[in-house]
Structures are given as C-alpha cells and as structure tokens.
Amino acid sequence: MATEQNDGLSDSQESFSDFWTTTFQIPDLNDVDLEGIELAEIVKKCEEAVPNENVKVETPTVLDTDVNIVKKEFVKQRPVPSQIIDKKVPFLCVESFSGEHDFQVVFPHDKSPITKCIHHTYSPDLKKLFAKMGERCPLHFTCASPPPPGTVIRAVPVFRQSENMMDIVTRCINHTLQDKSSHEATSHFIRAEMPDAMVEYSNTVHGRESVTVLYQTPDSGKENTMLLYRFMCNSSCPTGINRRPVSLVLTLESDTGEVLGRSVIDIHVSSCPGRDRTGEETKAQAPHMKKQIKKRFVNKRKHEAPKEKDDDNDLYYLPVKGREKYELLKKMKIALDLEELVTPEQKQNYYAQEEENQRSIV
Amino acid sequence: MATEQNDGLSDSQESFSDFWTTTFQIPDLNDVDLEGIELAEIVKKCEEAVPNENVKVETPTVLDTDVNIVKKEFVKQRPVPSQIIDKKVPFLCVESFSGEHDFQVVFPHDKSPITKCIHHTYSPDLKKLFAKMGERCPLHFTCASPPPPGTVIRAVPVFRQSENMMDIVTRCINHTLQDKSSHEATSHFIRAEMPDAMVEYSNTVHGRESVTVLYQTPDSGKENTMLLYRFMCNSSCPTGINRRPVSLVLTLESDTGEVLGRSVIDIHVSSCPGRDRTGEETKAQAPHMKKQIKKRFVNKRKHEAPKEKDDDNDLYYLPVKGREKYELLKKMKIALDLEELVTPEQKQNYYAQEEENQRSIV
DNA sequence: CAGGCATGCCTG
DNA sequence: CAGGCATGCCTG
Ligand SMILES: [Zn+2]
Ligand SMILES: [Zn+2]
Fold first, then answer.
1. 3-state DSSP helix/strand/coil percent for chain A, to nearest 5?
2. Binding residue per annotation — B120?
3. Is A93 among the domain residues?
4. CB-nearest partner of B176 from A8, A26, A360
5. What is the predicted ipTM?
6. Long-range pairs, A58-67, Cβ under 8 A, ≥24
7. Which of B2, B239, B349 is the closest to A230 by Cβ?
8. Long-range contacts: B190-198, Cβ < 8 Å, 24+?
9. Does the keyword DNA-binding apply (chains A, B) (predicted)?
C-alpha cells in the first residue's frame, strides 16, 4: 500500500512524460502560460503550413524561438508547457522507402573485432545498431542521385513497441539535469556531431525531438555520406527510454520539408554494445537454450574459432509407439506451437488466474 | 574524449551534490541569493546556539522556515542555495553509546521465512538491516530508564565509507522530482511513519537531512518502542546513494538537543532485500568460493494441500516419476492451458505456416 | 513469489 | 579490455 502513493516510487516500463509537466509548479511565474500559448500558436501555424509531420525550420532566427529551445530552457528553469511534452503524439511513420534518389542507410562491414564495450557495432542478423552512450557513432548514407540543394537528413528516435509508439523519446531526467554543458539541446536523446555541416535541433509539429544535418555529397573518393551522431542516454535509462526498444527514423527531406526518402534502423544504446550484440544474436539463434557456454569475448591478443549449434530450427523425428500416445503427443506438439502465438496480455491474464486458483485451493 | 565533457554522462560512485547548485541558473530570480543569505544566517545562529551538530527545532513555526523546507521548495522550483547543499559536511559521529538510559536499537528475532523480496530483514551476522524501498520498516528501541519528557529519536543516514562520509545522504534526482505527493520532505531519504507520534523533518546545522520522532514509552505489554520508517530510495539509486554503503545514525536526544545515546546500524535498501541478505551472508562466509549451490527461496505455496471441486473444473494430481518428465509435462500443461487462449485467426495463420513448413521439407 | 535475465559498472 | 558482480525488474 505504501508504494501505491504518488511518491515517486512507481517504476517499470512506462512513460514518464507526465513528470515534465507536473513537477514544476511555480505560481509566481504566470508569464509561463502566455509563452505556452504562443508556442501552441506557432505549432499550429506550422501544422497548417506543412501537412507533413516534420517541420523544417527555415532560418536560425526562427530556430531560436523553436519549441525545442523553449523546452530546453523550461526543463532547467521553468515548468514545461503541457502542450509540448505531456501528451501522447501520433505515430511517426516508420516505413522505409528509398525514393527517387534511392536514399539508404548502409553499414560498411567493419573488420575490427567486436570488443565488449566497442563504441558502435551493427548486427546484420538483427538489423540493429548497438552503440555506447555518449560516444561518436557514424552513420553512412547513400543517394543514387544528388538531392536538391538544401536537403537535410533528419533523425528522430521512436519507440518500437506499439504500447510506447505514441511517447516521445527524450533524454532521461538524470542526464538532462546533470548536463551542465552549453549544448543547445541537452534534453535531446540524439545529437549530431558535425563540425562542418549545419546542424539544427528542432521538434516535429507533434513535439518529437529531432536533429537535422544538411545533406552533403560524399567526400571525394567516398561513395557515401558519413554523419556522426551521439546517443545521450542508455536504452535502459530510468525516466527516459527505460529499457523500451527504440528505432531511429532517418529521413531525407527537401528544404520545403518534403520527405524524399526514409530509412529506419533499430538501435540499442548501452555501456557494453559488444556484449549486448552477441548476447542478442545468441538468444535469437537459440531462444530457449540454457546459456551453458557463454559467449566469450576474445582478448585481442588471443585467437579462437568455435561456433554455436543452432538446434532451435532443426527438425527431429520422434518415433512414437502406439496410436493413442501418438495422438496425444501430436496434440501436445500443436499446443506447444500454438503457445508461442499467445500474446503477452493473454499470458498475463492466464498467470493472474493461475495465482487465483492456487490461492483458492488452500 | 567525448565523455570527458560535462554533458551529464559522467557516472560511477561519486557524489552528485554538485548538481543541485549548478543545474538551476535563473538570472531573473535575484531574490534567490537574498534568501540564501538569510538561510545562512539562520544556520549560523543555530550553530552558535547549540554546539552539538544536531539542532532540535523548537517549534513547528520555526520548522516552517527550516532550511530543509526551503531546500525542498528549491529542489522543485528554484536553485538550491549552495551553502546548504553543495558542500562537504563534517563527519557525523557514528560511535554507538547507550548512555545513562541504556538506549539501544534491537531486532527481535523474526520467525517468518526470508522471502526474496521481503520488506525488511535484519542480518545478525552482518549486523545489517536489509529493507525494500518505500515499504514500512519497523525499528525497535529500548531504554532501561525513561528519558525526560520531550526526548526524541533522531534518524540521520550517513555514508559508511571514508570517501563519502562528508557527503549528505539525500534522495536521488529521479525519485525526488517524480514525487508528486504532498509529503513535506520529498527530498529526504528517510521518512518516519508514525500516525500517533510527532514527527519532524529538519536538517542538522551542517545540512544533513534528518527526521525526529517524539520518544514514547513502550506500549503496555511491550518491552520496546517501535517506530516505523520508510526508505525512499534504493541504495543503488543513481544520483542518490548510488550504491555507496550507508548507515543509519539513531540518537536519543533531549529537548535541548543533548545526545543521550546513539546507535548506528548498517542499512541496505533494494528491491530484493531477502536475496541481497542471503547473498551477502554467503559471500561473507565463503568470500572466494564460486557460487555453485545457489540459495533457493522456498515458495510459500509449494507444500500446501489441495481441495475438492466438481465437474469440468475438478483438480487432479498427476504423479510423475522423474524430474525431466515432470518438467516437460508441466510445460505441456501450461501449453494446453494457453492453447485455449489462441484466437481462431491465430490458429489459421499457424496452420497455414505449418503447411508451408511441410512443403519445404520435401 | 522464486528464477533468472539485463545491464551498469567494478576489478584485475 | 574481459570477467563477472550487483541489482532492478520481467517471466512463468
Ligand atoms: Zn539517461
Ligand atoms: Zn532514488
């Protein structure tokens, strides 16, 4: 009962966006509301002007009054306007399409060994990028034909699970408030680190935080455009991503905000990207096998060769003597297969009911 | 190099008290400094008046202007005055002495089994109290002779390691800011839950957060005084205790602030106090032994007896010889139960996929 | 409610 | 940098 109170002790995989609005209550700062309304009007204007969810902020001057900047200041100093943060927002389109310029995110094969805490590593099997918080992480883009001048690449993080897709991915409370750098977007989960390219932090009309980088043709001799990003929270951060799976939506956008192409990649940010990659790959290959032989990271100086056996998809033939047993086990086999189709919600209800039954036995 | 910046990504076992002062920078709230100075003067006065570090706040009226209350408001609304929080404070005396009233903290033997997530459990071997965050935790006190009227029991948490002993134990950022209850001390790590006794939250002259409860003689028939506390953070909380060992200093204090007795206990607050207690006890006994035989927690319901019902909901017991068969059939039973939850649509897809698989075998 | 995973981080 | 612990929390 003690933990039922709203005393900050609730936990688990939920959104904490609620926090941002209700935590700061400053009765003597009434101008806040005024600013909030003004913002809402700005947002409204954008919404009317651009049907696409992504809003390209035209000039740096406008950027200064962008909702994002305002939010950042509010996070550190004032209440966050509820219309910006405290809401479920519409799904962001996560459907990849390369478009007329054949826009794609590519991961050049990295020959260096996957150390446990490698800064970034991409798993082709899982189609997932594993990165270390705070470290530079390169992403490579290709275009078959050069897009028009002023085209940008926008990065927007989204939650992958349906339960969370309407929540905004943002930085956790701890990391946001502890950030004493002069960065202009301390609340953003993703930053772009391009000394030469123009970077802009802005929000979509619905309030999703994004960063755009001016598209540049590949450096001479290179066949793709490389941008450096930094992920400013772990995927596990409490009050932030909080262990929820996240994808990164990368869009090629014209200077009018038209989406020319879209590419979506799964990402996992942690302190040990190498460990987590191999762990997930192993689990994907042998879901139910007890981790007897734990994947060992090879000390760079040593060498090795062994490989794991994947018996989960192997086909076996079970000889069964007698019709009755065969029929029963056939039923069992079907039940086992069907069991995998049961949704988590169904299972939850089932186990809750089981508990009940156990209790009523006594 | 990226992580060397002050962008909120530093971690490890360090104090975060620095955060409270530098995070909030509000140039247009100059009155803050004034208030800060005023506070400093209040503190100064107390310091001059009472040589002992612990300051008994005389009246509730004074309590309202206590540094603690001010801090709490600042945490949520304004910069925290640096003179209150952002400093190393002198060691608090952690030497136990029972004094003339033979003041002691006692832990009556608890006969109930130590479940994994028991709310509180004391290890006599380790002389350490393991508690679950947010749950009521009783502490029992004894006095050989009744102390004078107005005597209180003060609880102050302190870090046990020398590197941290000068830091103030307080609640983590996440839990403090997420606490939307109307509690008067949302930033405090320790709360007292005494409906009948008088509770006061205050700070020592050096800024350590404490809670005092008016001492009451044991209820008739009881031989000790029981107080209920709640620990509002885990020992692991980032930006809070952050995995650093913590002790609880319990002092019996007269109404003039004189310390009549002191008792110090080690505490560990986590989500699984039972597991952590047995784990630490095991490690203390066999420090270097590999954990081969892991301590098993006994399911309370495991040995309970069945009951009779009727019809299709009858419960039967299937004797199974052999562990492996039992495990398999247990899985089967669950599968059969879950199978009933599968929707017709799911089944349709399943059988279609089965066909596919069959064909691909050939 | 116990088993056990996921994951930050401490150690050698 | 890999091994491995500590610990919140998910699963069955
Ligand atoms: Zn974070
Ligand atoms: Zn906490």
1. 25, 20, 55
2. no
3. no
4. A8
5. 0.66
6. A60/A200, A63/A200, A63/A201, A63/A202, A66/A201, A66/A202, A66/A203, A67/A39, A67/A42, A67/A43, A67/A202, A67/A203, A67/A207
7. B2
8. B190/B155, B190/B157, B190/B229, B190/B230, B190/B231, B190/B232, B190/B248, B191/B229, B191/B230, B191/B232, B192/B155, B192/B227, B192/B228, B192/B229, B192/B230, B193/A2, B193/B136, B193/B228, B193/B229, B193/B230, B194/B227, B194/B228, B197/B227
9. yes
What residues of chain B score a pLDDT lower than 50?
A: 1-4, 14-86, 291, 299-311, 355-356, 358-362
Instruction: Please state the rounded mean pLDDT for residues A28-54.
Output: 31
- Coil, strand or helix: which one is B327? helix
Give the integer Cα–Cα distance in Å for A153 and B33: 45
- Report how far residue A270's alpha carbon sits from residue A231's, in angstroms, rounded to the nearest whole number: 10
DSSP string over A85-138 = SSS--PPPP---B-TTTT-EEE-PPP-S---TT-SEEEETTTTEEEEETTSEEE
Residue A344 domain-assigned (yes or no): no
Whole-structure pTM over 0.90, yes or no? no
Contact predicate A204/A253, CB 8 Å: no
What backbone phi and psi angles, to 5 degrees, belong to B11?
Answer: -145, -145
Closest CA to A203 of A170, A237, A242, A162: A170
In three-state form (DSSP H/G/I as H, E/B as E, the rest C), the secondary structure along B337-360 is HHHCCCCHHHHHHHHHHHHHHHHH
pLDDT single digits (tens) A241-290? 999 999 999 999 999 999 999 999 999 999 999 999 999 999 888 755 65
Q: List the beta bridge partners of residue A265.
A: A248
Q: Which residue intervals of chain A are DSSP H helices?
A: 17-22, 31-49, 60-64, 67-77, 173-178, 273-285, 323-339, 344-361
**How far is residue A246's CA from residue A243's CA, in Å, rounded to a whole number?**
9
Q: What is the DSSP letter of B302?
A: T
- Residue at A17 is within a domain: no
Task: Measure the N-to-C terminal CA separation of chain B; round to a whole number of Å.
Answer: 57
Paired tokens of A171? 């930085």
Model pLDDT for residues A199-249, shown as the tens digit of each residue: 999 988 888 999 999 999 998 888 899 999 999 999 999 999 999 999 999
CA–CA dist B183, A245 (Å, integer): 34
pLDDT band at A327 (very low <50, low <70, confident <90, very high): low
Residue A183 lies in a domain: yes
Find which nucleotide's C1' atom is closest to A272's CA. C7
Q: Is B175 annotated as a binding residue?
A: yes
Strand duo B259-270 + B128-132: pairing: parallel
Q: Number of folded domains in chain A?
A: 1
Structure tokens that stand for B338 in this block: 């879950």
Task: State which residue of chain B sits closest to A238, comparing Cα positions.
Answer: B174
pLDDT of residue B248: 97
List strand C contacts in B 62-91 (CB < 7 A): none
Q: How far apart are the first and last CA of chain A?
A: 24
Structure tokens at B317: 């017991």
**Closest to A36 in 3D by CA, of A2, A87, A1, A105:** A87
CB contact under 8 A, A346 and B347: no
Whether the CB-CB separation of A29 and A80 falls below 8 Å is answered with: no
CATH number at residue A176: 2.60.40.720
Which residue of chain A comes nearest to B307, CA vs CA? A361
Q: What is the pLDDT of residues A154-166, one digit of tens each?
A: 999 999 999 899 9
